[in-house]
């Protein structure tokens, strides 16, 4: 699942970088609409319920808003030709959930998570060399 998510993010960011500025904010609208449609399509396959407790719904709404803000900032960075900065920061994305779990949930880091964090760090190093 992590590999599929990573490929999805890469395709998403690659596509956004290719969209001309004349498209306005439609790429963000389409991006959010497609992501919601994909998630809703996957619900029956997972057996998950669309009903969330109030707190979980609020957390999901904040996560969605932050994701939208991230997409907007990435789109702005690509339009300002700050792609090198945007790509480096995007490469750090996989580290954020792990670090949040370590900090707030007091979880222990697993070997695959450590490899993922190492991979993100390596990616940043390789991008910086280029």
From TrEMBL:
<dbReference type="InterPro" id="IPR000620">
    <property type="entry name" value="EamA_dom"/>
</dbReference>
<feature type="domain" description="EamA">
    <location>
        <begin position="1"/>
        <end position="128"/>
    </location>
</feature>
<feature type="transmembrane region" description="Helical">
    <location>
        <begin position="112"/>
        <end position="129"/>
    </location>
</feature>
<keyword id="KW-0812">Transmembrane</keyword>
<comment type="similarity">
    <text>Belongs to the EamA transporter family.</text>
</comment>
<dbReference type="InterPro" id="IPR037185">
    <property type="entry name" value="EmrE-like"/>
</dbReference>
<feature type="transmembrane region" description="Helical">
    <location>
        <begin position="33"/>
        <end position="50"/>
    </location>
</feature>
<protein>
    <recommendedName>
        <fullName>EamA domain-containing protein</fullName>
    </recommendedName>
</protein>
<dbReference type="GO" id="GO:0016020">
    <property type="term" value="C:membrane"/>
</dbReference>
<keyword id="KW-0472">Membrane</keyword>
<dbReference type="Pfam" id="PF00892">
    <property type="entry name" value="EamA"/>
</dbReference>
<keyword id="KW-1133">Transmembrane helix</keyword>
<feature type="transmembrane region" description="Helical">
    <location>
        <begin position="57"/>
        <end position="77"/>
    </location>
</feature>
<feature type="transmembrane region" description="Helical">
    <location>
        <begin position="83"/>
        <end position="105"/>
    </location>
</feature>
């Amino acid at each position: 699942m992590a590999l599929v998510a990573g490929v999805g993010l890469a395709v998403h960011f690659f596509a956004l970088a290719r969209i001309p500025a004349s498209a306005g904010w439609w790429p963000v609208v389409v991006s959010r609409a497609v992501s919601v449609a994909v998630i809703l399509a996957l619900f029956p396959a997972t057996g998950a319920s669309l009903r969330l407790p109030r707190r979980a719904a609020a957390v999901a709404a904040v996560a969605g808003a932050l994701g939208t803000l991230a997409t907007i900032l990435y789109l702005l960075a690509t339009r300002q030709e700050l792609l090198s900065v945007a790509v480096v920061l995007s490469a750090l994305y996989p580290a954020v959930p792990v670090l949040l779990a370590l900090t707030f949930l007091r979880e222990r880091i697993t070997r695959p998570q450590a490899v993922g964090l190492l991979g993100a760090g390596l990616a940043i190093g390789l991008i910086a060399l280029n």
